[in-house]
């Protein structure tokens, strides 16, 4: 790539100073610069910029999320170049203040020396996702040139309404009001291990219930080789895995299994009590490359469904403790496989003390795509999702199917599964 074509158009804003307990005020950059003086002085536009705070939406983590965006004009970047050997940076500030006056702060730096000599600078968009609970907030944003303290400042009100017709009205009871989402590399960005908040999801079953949570991480054969589709699936499945692993079983226990159908491998965490141990379970996600399949795995591709069925049946047929019951939650993206051998045995014994749930989570595309027919007319939306191969397998265990493609649909499925387990 030629240096003059370097693109600086989009930088996702990572959190170098995460929110802290007791108001999130421990960001040293807010003491190094006169941020509170700028607040008292009101709006300023010493640096040409634009900004916005997008309305709250429900995220895959089942947390209300808002996005703060600040864009610095191309002309500003060009004018603020730093000569070779010099120093200088733009400091970007974001502060959330709730109705009780508590504050949560974060900053990010853009090193002006990163613009190579001869490169054509572009506008920079900085975006920060923030998890918030319903309430009234005041969002303050600022950008400052470290060399001369020229700055821009703005403050906007933010109202975060409760989830509409919330099937889990108490889930946010123990969450911190504000948590900044870190822009870190995959697979950690999908799990967000630095989040302190935990949803309140109690399940008080009538009988002791052991839950097996089984997640398939294998992409559909139609998507094999597409790292983009694999990552899009994981961006919703791993938050869902984290949420299910956080169920508070007041009269039960949980084991978690990850399955890789191509390589016929599993990873397990048993007797889960405090949620998923990400340090132990991140390995398969970090190593997975859906575009590379070794020769041995290729030879076993016809047995993928059989391997999956064997793992499910092994768990489903384990006897519960005396007086207890078993539940199984299967989590996967839709899986369509070609040329699979018929699974054996093709039936499974009925068990009134067992419940099986299949959550098929289809990640939405980055944008809603409009389909146009050859004659130029707009086609109707795609029909509902057809049966996938895993559904045909779990139906042998009389599984209840939940097909979801949005956080709102997942929330309803989660509430329904919790309710069913609670009645066991």
What features would you describe in this structure?
The protein is an alpha/beta fold. The protein has eleven helices and 19 strands. The longest helix is centred in the middle third of the chain and has 19 residues. The N terminus is likely disordered.
State the main characteristics.
alpha/beta; single chain; Immunoglobulin-like; elongated; 424 residues; six-stranded mixed beta sheet
Question: How would you sum up this structure in a few lines?
Answer:
This protein is of the alpha/beta class and 424 residues long. Helices cover 21% and strands 28% of the residues.
Write the layout of secondary structure elements.
Layout: E1 10-12, H1 28-32, H2 35-41, E2 44-45, E3 49-53, E4 57-58, E5 64-72, H3 74-79, E6 89-98, E7 103-111, E8 124-132, E9 135-145, E10 151-160, E11 178-180, H4 188-191, E12 202-203, E13 209-216, H5 227-245, E14 248-249, E15 252-260, E16 265-269, H6 278-281, H7 283-287, H8 295-299, H9 304-316, E17 325-332, E18 354-361, H10 389-394, E19 400-404, H11 407-422
Parallel strand pairs: 1-8, 12-14, 13-15, 13-17, 17-18, 18-19
Antiparallel strand pairs: 2-10, 3-5, 4-5, 5-8, 6-7, 6-9, 8-11, 9-10, 15-16
């Amino acid at each position: 790539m030629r240096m003059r074509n370097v693109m600086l158009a989009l930088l996702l804003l990572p959190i170098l100073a995460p929110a802290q307990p007791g108001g999130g005020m421990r960001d040293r950059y807010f003491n190094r610069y006169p941020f509170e003086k700028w607040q008292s002085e009101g709006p300023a536009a010493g640096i040409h910029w634009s900004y916005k705070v997008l309305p709250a939406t429900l995220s895959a983590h089942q947390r209300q999320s808002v996005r703060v965006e600040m864009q610095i004009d191309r002309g500003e970047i060009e004018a603020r170049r730093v000569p070779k050997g010099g120093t200088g940076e733009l400091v970007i500030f974001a502060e959330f203040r709730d109705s009780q006056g508590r504050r949560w702060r974060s900053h990010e730096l853009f090193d002006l020396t990163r613009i190579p000599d001869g490169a054509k600078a572009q506008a920079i968009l900085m975006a920060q996702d923030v998890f918030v609970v319903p309430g009234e907030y005041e969002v303050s944003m600022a950008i400052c040139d470290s060399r001369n303290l020229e700055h821009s400042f703005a403050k906007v009100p933010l109202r975060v309404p409760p989830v509409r017709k919330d099937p889990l009205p108490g889930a946010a009871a123990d969450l911190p009001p504000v948590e900044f989402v870190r822009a870190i590399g995959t697979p950690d960005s999908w799990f967000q291990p630095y989040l302190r908040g935990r949803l309140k999801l109690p399940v008080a079953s009538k009988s002791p219930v052991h839950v097996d949570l089984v997640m398939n991480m294998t992409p559909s054969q139609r998507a094999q080789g597409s790292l983009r589709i694999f990552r899009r699936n994981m961006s919703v499945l791993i938050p869902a895995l984290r949420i299910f692993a956080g169920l508070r079983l007041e009269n039960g226990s949980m084991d978690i299994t990850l399955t890789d159908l191509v390589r016929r491998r599993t990873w397990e965490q048993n007797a889960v009590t405090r949620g998923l141990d990400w340090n132990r379970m991140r390995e398969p996600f970090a190593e997975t490359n859906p575009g590379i399949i070794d020769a041995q795995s290729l030879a076993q591709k016809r047995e993928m469904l059989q391997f999956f069925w064997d793992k499910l049946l092994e768990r489903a047929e384990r006897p519960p403790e005396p007086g207890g019951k078993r539940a199984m939650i299967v989590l996967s993206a839709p899986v369509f496989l070609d040329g699979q051998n018929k699974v054996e045995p093709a039936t499974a014994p009925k068990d009134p003390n067992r419940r099986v749930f299949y959550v098929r989570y289809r990640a939405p595309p980055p944008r809603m795509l409009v389909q146009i027919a050859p004659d130029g007319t707009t086609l109707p939306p795609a029909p509902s999702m057809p049966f996938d191969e895993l559904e045909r397998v779990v139906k042998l265990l009389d599984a209840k199917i939940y097909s979801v493609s949005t956080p709102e649909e997942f929330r309803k499925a989660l509430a329904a599964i919790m309710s069913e387990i609670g009645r066991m």
